[in-house]
Specification:
alpha+beta, 579 residues, 36 strands, 8 helices, five-stranded antiparallel beta sheet, single chain, 17% helix, eight-stranded mixed beta sheet
């Protein structure tokens, strides 16, 4: 399946995808067959208000099929020519990108993962074209238009390996081989030129003056004083408590439409009436509220994880797609994002933890906000198993207590929906779930607690009963499968997974075998497992900790072996036998 995204600005301008061709080549009975794409099977899909896509499926696809496709994308948006990816999830024999540029516009480009192209050429196009009104007098143009030949740039990569290992990375866009363009300069008929390629200071200045950014904050400020007075009781609050109350008010009262943007999408009064908008609408409004309450706050433009990492040496505006807020009180400085109410007021969602963000303020200093915050997040499971050997079942109670980003993942994934949480327990090894309850779902500064009761089926081999003390909750597969890796392993945040399993067995049964205790600790991680037999059964206490959020490529092999140990040790069994 092939998807070709194209941009629509919402004001009548749109990129156009045309001349799509696709072929599948198969060797059948010693002969090469070629199947062509049926053009009627191409369809268009709306991704959101700004992005659409042309989609089609390569025909007659089999194992070993070679595929080929090409298309033309025409864009009216001069500032950002679409990038081109030379690499894919399957091996690429040949990839060519030809771009025809009007010569009055000069572009700079950067490459990623490419030392040199297999073929690269720049030349004038064969045909003379015109821009504006061209009037010839004695062979000289006296009109206000231009005659020109396109500048044609061709870039080719051959025998590009597949991008295989996609586990624990920010985005494929951060590592895949590609080329990216940005408008750098405009040349005028008069002979003058204008530098477009910006720098960070200029970008900050432009955003501060932009009607959909800096000026939008000022428009919100006109309403903020009234909102603070009528909708919020803020008298006597300390700055830290005041900031928390304002952030939580915006989170609970205004709805995010799911669209990331660094520019507001509606007028200030429309947003306040509709109480809904994109990420810029919500967080710029938050900035205005905080500033009006006397709290120092500034917008921070970032790139979300799926959008790719910002390259701080290249001031490309299109690298950014989202706004968060940096807040400073007398006692703390923190980042926040009012688009998500499943995260604490002084935390940003995991999708925002992606390198650095540019702080937009009125000072001359260029300030970057470090987004890779690293609070250790806990997921602690307590499991009580009452063994019934006759029915080959265990009456089971589980308590899950999660903090920080682990709590966010549970809140954000399951939405406190008991049906969805039941699925969590069933996938974790329960056969039936009889009772479920949760605590502190809305109190995002507190741990999120899930408590469940039900039954677990036991495995019997001959006369022995096999028990997995942690059920199916531990990881059972190592997703790090490559022998080596040239880019980091990114877990987003450091985490601690802990288990406490209490297994009560009947008097007429005994424990035949249980695994040995195990302990390992180094600078990367820690594992502890302890088995303690008791009069009524056995208790197992275990945990593993990833001490870092991001592991460097030279730590990959050690990390991979560490996860292998977790998979093996946390899925070992206890064996019972009748006396």
């Amino acid at each position: 399946n092939v998807s070709i995204p194209f941009y629509v600005d919402g004001f009548g301008e749109s990129e156009i995808v045309m001349k799509i061709e696709a072929f599948a080549y198969n060797y059948e009975n010693g002969k090469l067959s070629k199947t062509e794409l049926d053009k009627s099977s191409i369809y268009e899909e709306k991704i959101n208000d700004r992005w659409h896509a042309k989609r089609f499926a390569i025909p007659n696809l089999k194992k070993g099929t070679n595929i080929e496709f090409r298309y033309v994308l025409e864009t009216p948006f001069l500032f950002n020519i679409p990038d081109w990816q030379f690499q894919d999830r399957i091996p690429t024999i040949y990839s060519e990108y030809t771009v025809r540029m009007i010569p009055i516009f000069e572009y700079s480009f950067i490459t990623q993962g490419i030392r040199r192209f297999d073929y690269q050429k720049s030349e004038h196009g064969k045909h003379v074209r015109t821009w504006g009104r061209v009037v010839k007098s004695f062979g000289t143009n006296v009109g206000d238009g231009l005659e020109f030949q396109d500048m044609v740039h061709t870039y080719v990569m051959k025998d590009v390996p597949a991008f295989i290992d996609e586990s624990y990375i920010t985005s494929v866009n951060d590592y895949i081989m590609k080329i990216d363009f940005q408008l750098a300069k405009i040349y005028y008929k008069s002979g003058d030129s204008k530098e477009i390629m910006t720098n960070w200071a200029k970008m900050i200045e432009e955003l501060t003056k932009d009607a959909k950014f800096g000026k939008q904050i000022k428009k919100y400020t006109n309403y903020a004083k009234k909102i603070l007075k009528e909708d919020l009781n803020i008298k006597g609050l300390k700055p830290a408590d005041l900031a928390q109350k304002i952030i939580e008010h915006v989170k609970s009262s205004y709805n995010w439409d799911g669209i990331y943007s660094k520019y507001s999408s509606v007028k200030a009064n429309e947003f306040l009436t509709q109480k809904s908008g994109n990420s810029s609408d919500i967080n710029l409004f938050l900035v205005a509220l905080l500033q009006s309450a006397g709290i120092e706050a500034h917008p921070v433009i970032i790139s979300t994880r799926g959008h790719g990492r910002i390259k701080v040496d290249y001031p490309y505006a299109h690298f950014f797609n989202h706004i968060i807020v940096v807040v400073q009180t007398d006692s703390q400085t923190f980042l926040c994002d009012a688009t998500n109410n499943h995260i604490a007021y002084n935390r940003i969602p995991p999708t925002c933890i992606n390198g650095k963000g540019l702080v937009i303020n009125n000072t001359e200093d260029i300030k970057w906000a470090e987004l890779n915050l690293n609070p250790l997040s806990y997921d602690f499971k307590t499991i009580n198993l009452e063994i019934d050997p006759e029915l080959l079942k265990a009456n089971t109670r589980i308590s899950i207590q999660a903090t920080e980003y682990e709590a966010f993942e549970y809140r954000n994934t399951y939405k406190n929906d008991l049906k969805k949480l039941e699925t969590l327990l069933l996938e974790g090894g329960f056969n039936t779930v009889n009772k479920l309850e949760t605590k502190y779902y809305k109190e995002t500064n507190s741990p999120y607690i899930i408590i469940g009761h039900g039954e677990v089926e036991l495995e019997k081999i001959e006369d022995q009963i096999i028990i997995s003390p942690f059920l199916n909750f531990p990881i059972n597969e190592n997703k790090l499968t490559q022998r080596k890796r040239s880019y980091p392993v990114d877990f987003i945040y450091s985490r601690d997974k802990a288990f406490h399993s209490i297994i009560n067995i009947p008097n007429n049964y005994k424990i035949v075998s249980f695994p040995e205790n195990f302990q390992l600790e180094n600078d990367l991680a820690e594992i502890n497992i302890e088995y303690l037999p008791s009069v009524n059964g056995i208790e197992v206490t275990a945990k593993y900790t990833f001490k870092k959020a991001v592991y460097r490529p030279n730590e990959y092999s050690r990390l991979k072996s560490f996860i292998d140990i977790i998979v093996r040790k946390f899925n070992e069994s206890i064996v019972l036998e009748k006396i």
